[in-house]
Amino acid sequence: MAIATRRLKHWGWGYEDQQPSREQVEGIAKAVTERLGFHVDRVEEPVPLERVELPKPRLTPPKRFAEMFSDDRYDRLAHSLGKAYRDVVRGFRGEFPNPPDLVAYPESVEDIDLVFNFCADEGAAMIPFGGGTSVVGGVEPRMRDRYPAVVTLDLRRMDRVLEIDPISKAARIQAGATGPRLEKQLGEHGLTLRHFPQSFEYSTLGGWIATRAGGHFATLYTHIDDLVESVRALTLRGEWESRRLPGSGAGPSPDRLLLGSEGILAVIAEAWVRVRERPTEKTSCAVAFDDFEDGGEVVREISQTGLNPSNCRLLDATESEISSAGPPGKAILVLGFESAREPVEEPMSLALDLCRDLGGDPGEVRSSGMGEPGAASRRESPAPSEAGEDPVGAWRHAFLFAPYLRDSLVACGVLSDTFETAITWDRFPDFHADVMETARRAAAEASGAPEEGPGSPRVSCRFTHVYPDGPAPYYTVLAPARRGEEVAQWDEIKAAVSDAVIDLGGTITHHHAVGRDHRPWFDRQRPDPFADALRAAKRELDPKGLLNPGVLVDP
């Protein structure tokens, strides 16, 4: 049974009715030539849904529960890939090598248990699916040929805020609730979770927990980890539910084992999360620096003062230029503070004093200019004209518009993807220089373009989150694509930069999760005894190795 709702694209970002017109894509192609210097020889069209080759499902749902399952063409294709560049390219070209055989839509914990037992009886692999926004191969059934069937478990029907505790400021929310859906329900009580990843519009609470997603706050409460009070999940061995506690020293935390487990141990059904009053006091400012390194020193100082800005994102000159956030040749610090009760002018003033002491040039301080990343959920279709004139607004718009723009860049023959990491402050300068050089060289070699000058790849960096002991740098690569070979091209670049990140002491991921794409480098990063313990946990909870096989550890 297909779900009758406004449909997301089966191959790219956003809804089907948000696909830009041919004229708009040609306008983007012109801008690519003018701003990036990449020659666009033609604009391609995505392969229509009806022309995609799709194998017949190998599994028939049980008659008693048939309404819970779908073998519809759209449903199967829409659950075949995530939203990484390599996924979007393959979907654009109609290449779906690993579709699930069935998609299940449970509405309750009992339904999840039914699907569990069905898959166990049939020996079918089962992939938990939130919003499908994984950029690391976390939801793609690449193990398809090793199992008699694959069932994707889509939790979108479990999307309610079930309970509010106004005294403790907590809420019990079903795992399938998307960012806009849970914020709307919390807003009716004057509350907010205040967790806004870039995928906010489509990703879900369960997905955030399973992947340890990074959110809105650039300091202090940076990950969903900081907002989780307790988790309820289902395993093949029974239900897993932790106590609601503000903290506990009772051994390893049950919740911590589920946070970042990426669907290999259990299916997260709901969670109690810490919520807060909606902010009423906001202030923001963009600060220009002559170079990225000076800005980095300021960010380090700010992160170690205890001021805890909600926004503290440093953009290098290339990132700033692409997003129109600041004057040419300058690095830009996007700085913001917010509060539900306390004035925020004083911490902003103290932070700007630090900026000035280290050569920063603050722009206009805006008391209501920061807004929130979740605002994208209230727009039908982002457009460049919405960016606004202030640097903070321009950066915010570019941040939200990037996933939509990438679909059009694929049509124009432009490779566009990212990688992110974290490193301590003492190692950051050398780390950053080596990673940037590696990325530039790898992008040029993979695209056949010069390393410098007209038509050369662009590599940029920004800090997404910062800590007293180090930043989380996020790198963007733009390069001319090799038409028809884009996946292999990006894989060359990704392998080179991932090797550099691990060899130089960084983490293979700060907030994008491991999935299947990061496995080779995750295996090099984690201690071997830990991997043995994780495999043992999987054997105990998933003895048949059916849950999201190939992610984190082999079944």
Structural account:
- The chain is α+β, with helices and mostly antiparallel strands and 555 residues long.
- It folds into 3 domains: 16-154, Uridine Diphospho-n-acetylenolpyruvylglucosamine Reductase, domain 2 (2-Layer Sandwich); 161-277, Uridine Diphospho-n-acetylenolpyruvylglucosamine Reductase, domain 3 (2-Layer Sandwich), CATH 3.30.465; 281-375 and 386-503, FAD-linked oxidase, cap domain/gating helix (Vanillyl-alcohol Oxidase, Chain A, domain 3, 3-Layer(aba) Sandwich), CATH 3.40.462.
- It is built from 15 helices and 18 strands.
- It has helices at residues 22-36, 73-78, 85-92, 109-122, 179-187, 205-211, 254-258, 292-303, 317-323, 345-357, 391-412, 428-447, 486-503, 519-525, 528-541; strands spanning 69-70, 102-104, 125-129, 150-154, 161-165, 170-174, 191-192, 228-235, 238-241, 267-274, 276-277, 281-289, 311-315, 331-339, 361-362, 414-420, 458-467, 470-480.
- Helix 1 packs across helix 11 (391-412) and helix 12 (428-447) packs antiparallel against helix 13.
- The radius of gyration is 23 Å and the shape is globular.
- The protein starts with 21 loop residues before the first helix and ends in a 14-residue tail after the last helix.
SSE map:
Layout lengths: L21 H15 L32 E2 L2 H6 L6 H8 L9 E3 L4 H14 L2 E5 L20 E5 L6 E5 L4 E5 L4 H9 L3 E2 L12 H7 L16 E8 L2 E4 L12 H5 L8 E8 L1 E2 L3 E9 L2 H12 L7 E5 L1 H7 L7 E9 L5 H13 L3 E2 L28 H22 L1 E7 L7 H20 L10 E10 L2 E11 L5 H18 L15 H7 L2 H14 L14
Parallel strand pairs: 2-4, 3-4
Antiparallel strand pairs: 1-2, 5-6, 6-10, 7-11, 8-9, 8-10, 12-14, 12-15, 13-14, 16-18, 17-18
Helix pairs in contact: 1-11, 3-11, 3-13, 12-13
